[in-house]
Amino acid sequence: MTKKKATKKKVAKKTAKKKTTKKTTKKVAVKKKAAKKATKKKAVKKVAKKATKKKVAKKVAKKATKKTAKKKPSVDLKKQLHDSILELIRVTSTVIPDDVQKVILESLKKEKEGTSAEYAMKIIEANIELAKKKSQPMCQDTGTILFFIEHPAGYHQNEFKKVVEKAVVEATKKGYLRQNSVDTLTGANNTMNIGLGHPSFHFHEHNKNTVEVKLMLKGGGCENVGAQYALPHTALDAGRDLKGVRKVILDAIVKAQGKGCGPGVLGVTIGGDRGAGFIDSKEQLLRKLDDSNSIPELDALERDIVETANKLGIGPMGFGGKTTLLGCKIGVLNRLPASYFVSVSYMCWAFRRQGVVLGANNEIKKWLY
Ligand code: SF4
């Protein structure tokens, strides 16, 4: 090999080496760039992940706070329900509903001056005023405690009962209610109005969002003169029609004279079985005295019964006079072909029933009577 040739080869080798080095450097640079990009991506992902985690944690914390916030007032809700029911009991026991007082005062005006009937009505009037003024029970017999509750779907009835029972005990301690419920078999009276079937709760679901609680305090004397007839009733010549119904209702009024602390109000139910008939007859007493029956025949019968009863001369407390009945409310239930019951519940002049609509926090939003 000549010297020239050898030099050429050397130069070529150098150039090739340079090219290879350049290529490698480029490759490394590309790789480095890619690695950098990947690292960046990873870092962004990490940050995003962290942010998401933080967001989720925040959401969870927010939910927990909301739950706590929701839970917190539930203790207050129970207390508020307790206080509202306590007030409902106080008012029911001590203040006669407006619709009843109105009829009592109208009846007083109709009684002849100086008669025993007028005297009895005046005592009733004074009794009503005094009870309201002193916030004391209208009558020493504060009666059977009956609650009628209308509530939306999903309402916790057992929780309601527990709170109400506590309110009943407190109302008894405060003297709004007499210690009135005894063990039937032993006669023991040591449960502050709480016992089997007492108070009596009647729940109905309705389509509104609100809860309506009605309370009736029904005295023993008037409960004793309630009656149930199975028609046909041969002795009274009462058949299975409204004429027969009229006969047995008037019979119940005559039999109650001098008992049950009249003038009274009748709740009547035609039909049903014996149990349903009596419960519904009590629910008729939840109607306002000045309302009208939506069934024309029954509306006419209600007016006829009051008019006829007040001509019987029984009068307040059975002393004679023009006021025997303050009202009569008649309902109807389906029956079996084999049965035709007429159930009569009698309410004395001390007609204690009230009702409230509860607000979202169980506060009393509205009085119903
Ligand atoms: S019947 Fe009525 S007024 Fe008479 S004692 Fe009983 S609760 Fe009182």
Low-confidence region ranges: none
Strand content: 15-25%
Q: Approximately how much helix is present in the residues?
A: 40-55%
> What kind of assembly state do the chains in view correspond to?
single chain
C-alpha Rg, in Å?
41 Å
Strand segment count: 9
Biggest sheet, open or closed, and with what strands and sense? 5 strands, mixed
Principal-axis shape equals elongated
Task: Please report the distance between the alpha carbons of the first and last residues.
Answer: 130 Å
Strand order of the largest sheet: 2-1-3-8-9
Helix segment tally: 8
What series of H and E elements makes up the topology?
HHHEHEEHEHEHHEEEE
Instruction: List all distinct small molecules, including ions and cofactors, that are bound in this structure.
Output: iron/sulfur cluster
The average pLDDT value, as a whole number, equals: 90
Summing up helix and strand content along with how strands pair, one would put the structural category as alpha+beta
Q: What does this protein structure show overall?
A:
The chain is an alpha+beta fold and about 375 residues long. About 50% of the residues lie in helices and about 15% in strands. The protein contains eight helices and nine strands. It has helices at about 5-95, 100-110, 115-135, 155-175, 220-225, 240-255, 275-285, 295-310; strands at about 145-150, 200-205, 210-220, 225-230, 265-270, 325-330, 340-345, 350-360, 365. Strands 2-1-3-8-9 form a five-stranded mixed β-sheet. A four-stranded mixed β-sheet has the order 4-7-5-6. A hairpin with a 5-residue loop joins strand 8 and strand 9. Helix 1 packs across helix 4 and helix 6 (about 240-255) runs parallel beside helix 8. It is elongated and about 160 Å long. The termini are far apart. The relative contact order is 0.14. The model has no long low-confidence stretch (mean pLDDT about 90). The chain binds iron/sulfur cluster (SF4). Iron/sulfur cluster binds next to helix 5.
